[in-house]
Amino acid sequence: MNTIYGGVEAGGTKFVCAIGTGPDDLERTSFPTTTPDETIAQAIAFFRERGPLSALGIASFGPVDLDPRSETYGYITSTPKAGWANTDISGILGRALGVQVRFDTDVNAAALAESRWGAARGVDDVVYFTVGTGIGGGALAGGHLVHGLLHPEMGHMRIPHDRAADPYPGICPYHGDCLEGLASGPAVEQRWGTRGENLPPDHPAWQLEARYLAAGVVGVVCTLSPRRVIMGGGVMEQPCLFPMIREEVATLLNGYVQAPEIGPPALGKDTGVLGAIALAMVG
Amino acid sequence: MNTIYGGVEAGGTKFVCAIGTGPDDLERTSFPTTTPDETIAQAIAFFRERGPLSALGIASFGPVDLDPRSETYGYITSTPKAGWANTDISGILGRALGVQVRFDTDVNAAALAESRWGAARGVDDVVYFTVGTGIGGGALAGGHLVHGLLHPEMGHMRIPHDRAADPYPGICPYHGDCLEGLASGPAVEQRWGTRGENLPPDHPAWQLEARYLAAGVVGVVCTLSPRRVIMGGGVMEQPCLFPMIREEVATLLNGYVQAPEIGPPALGKDTGVLGAIALAMVG
User: How many whole angstroms separate alpha carbon A234 and alpha carbon A6?
Assistant: First the structure.
């Protein structure tokens, strides 16, 4: 019997399902995220057509329950996304397909995929940030994905906010001016009155954005001490950001500790679903 | 042959050396940290008198080099402590005693000791803060001590600093108002003109201190997601701090994620050297 690995990238906007063993061996499909019933049924149908899976990885939007001792292990828990709170996504898929499921956050899975095949190949200490509608972060520490009481929620770190220089109060409904509140895509749009993609590279928006993202990078440097920090998501498509962030990180660290390498993901749009495949392969 | 574990807590002020297997089986001595030659010779003499060791753990002040691939692995590296920069502490002790050395930061070792015998017994996701002359933090993530590019340097996280409410610029020579710059013992003393132990529990110093330390705790919650946060060191001997910190953490998290348990170490003054013993026992 062949070994067939399946992966589901469960996103708030779309689901990506794939079978394969890496970037060069990947058969994928995607469809919009509607109701849990409809969306999960589409995923089940995709995998049933491709024969019995050996293992399935699910890389999910969250928050999720990763505690194997918990009654809601494998659930998407308190998400604000309509209809999806308390959805036993890994239980439903695992039972329907008769397969062992490995479940994690989308960003932890992305860190794993980039460590396996991408921008952090062979690196065991990796942080993956996504900067888009929200800010999320996943981490591999010593080769192990970080879980703990919940899982990393890097977007909600508190960072310095100079209200004289930037009176914008922040957009996070829970915390106002946490990292996500100050530096997510919607924060950029609300502060400047237009989407980031409309702001030229020399607009002051980017220097401010780089300063906030650098404070987040320094937060992970001081706690997780990654060798590599990978930053993806829509906001990071402004290419001027990387040099600015590296400079701000160096300024903030001020020679006290070495800065990690900071750069974009190498796996592009497939990072998420490859992360799910990587989860399945780890077993 | 008996199994004999040795531990060295290498502190900037004093060295503690011990043999034993845990809190109830510990023979210890301590002496001031003078020059590396003299101090390390005293440690060697202590262990030689007690027969051949099976393994030696060293829990050291830092920064230290924990990368086994590095040429300065096992060294205290860029410490400002006179005479101690670039000291091959683990190589010298290991060769003199003919024993395998396991080397880590004092605070990582403390996290390990508290997880093994103390306030976080059986917990695999632990952060240990020490708040004294400086602020340091160690972490166990999924049962593994966090290393990475260097090791955690939690005292140097950037946190919100409202200069209108607290114009004190911070005492960190590298970063000014990082966590250590705002909340270490010397920062408290410089800001208020007297040592923390002279300030009564209802002095506004403690509410401010709790706010800064809570921001640091939120920083580790969002990155390492610990189940337990242990806070020791001289500043934490003010007992009013714990309830204030718990309240500030809850306020900052605002229900978005659950707060970890926050409390003092259980192993008292022996946390450090027990951490070194625990390193030796892990092998």
Answer: 26
**Residues near A100 by beta carbon (within 8 Å), at least 6 away in sequence:** A55, A56, A94, A283
Q: Residue B262 in contact with residue B242, Cβ under 8 Å?
A: yes
Q: How many CB atoms lie within 10 A of CB B170?
A: 20
Q: Is A232 on the interface with B (CB under 8 A)?
A: no
Judged by a CB distance cut-off of 8 A, whether residue B28 touches chain A is no
Phi and psi at B50, nearest 5°, equal: -110, 20
Nearest CA in chain A to B65: A257
ipTM, 2 decimals?
0.96
Q: What is the pLDDT of residues B127-172, one digit of tens each?
A: 999 999 999 999 999 999 999 999 999 999 999 999 999 999 999 9
Question: How many contacts (CB atoms, under 8 Å) link A and B?
Answer: 155
Amino acid at B48: R
Q: Are B139 and B123 in contact (CB under 8 A)?
A: no
Distance, in angstroms, between A112 CA and closest chain B CA? 15
Query: Which residues lie below 8 Å from residue A242, measured CB to CB, with a gap of 6+?
Result: A231, A236, A262, A263, A264
Distance from CA of B83 to the nearest CA of A (A): 19
Band (pLDDT 50/70/90 cuts) for residue A258 is: very high
Question: Crossing angle of helices A204-223/A241-253, nearest 10°?
Answer: 50
The predicted model gives A128-156 an average pLDDT of 97
Closest residue in B to A163 (Cα) is B162
